[in-house]
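Deliverable D4.2, example record:
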Amino acid sequence: AVVSTQSTGEIMESVYKATEEYLKKKNHNNAPSLSPLGAFIVSCDRPEQMIEMIKEAVGELEIHAGSDFFFVLDCLASDFHSEVTPGQGSAKKGQAKSGGKKKKRVSVVMPQSTSRHRYDWIEGQIKPTEDLVDFLEGIVESESILAFVDPLHPEDIEGYDLLASKVSSKCLIFSRKLTPHTSPVFRLHTTLTTSLNQLQELDRPSTILEAALFEEGETMLADLALVSGCGYVMLGGLRGVRCGLYNRINKLVQQHGPVQNVIEQWVFKEYVPPATPAIPEAES
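Output generated by the structure prediction step:
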């Protein structure tokens, strides 16, 4: 969740605790399982069900999605991606439609997807890029989605172009392996010098600074988050050693004053279609 007020820590903690209590009630008072990053591990029938659960969990609190906080979905699309020969595999959504009365039946077959990329974001339903893009566009319209991280496979260039054409005016798109129409996610490297040098080459206001998977309580990342100029941080759940990162940021904010509200600085990217290759003129 990305919070839009200066009381960021308090709202994040309220959302996290309310969600934890909600999941405990759903699980016969047993604490929910956690990932190494401190995220709750939840089984859902629909991807958007996780958002609905958080909204329901904070329903009795005086905080609201879309005003007090927003959702950023780290999709990790490569984990449910596969490839097929273009023109084979599942067709685009709405493969067949039937109409008519009684015995009369008319079928309209939609064209096969030209993309080689397939996504199994709903278990057992392997769909082409176009369907996943339609789904992502739909939840941007219906939910308080601010940004996607890795919504498609990094080699799905046409998919990123299609997604950007539909949502880039109202939603940010990030990728760990920079692709067209996306902003970077940066994770610290082996030495601070190397990390700082690489950060200098990035558009830092549009960059997410991400904590590595196994940060052993190192709070330097919190200091770097406030001095690097990166517009966003992704530190993991409010549990274990990662609490040190949030505590350090809160301490720095108390010492130096609140950071300017990033909501005021969000600039959604204008979609720029890829250039059409020039067709060489035929020799006379």
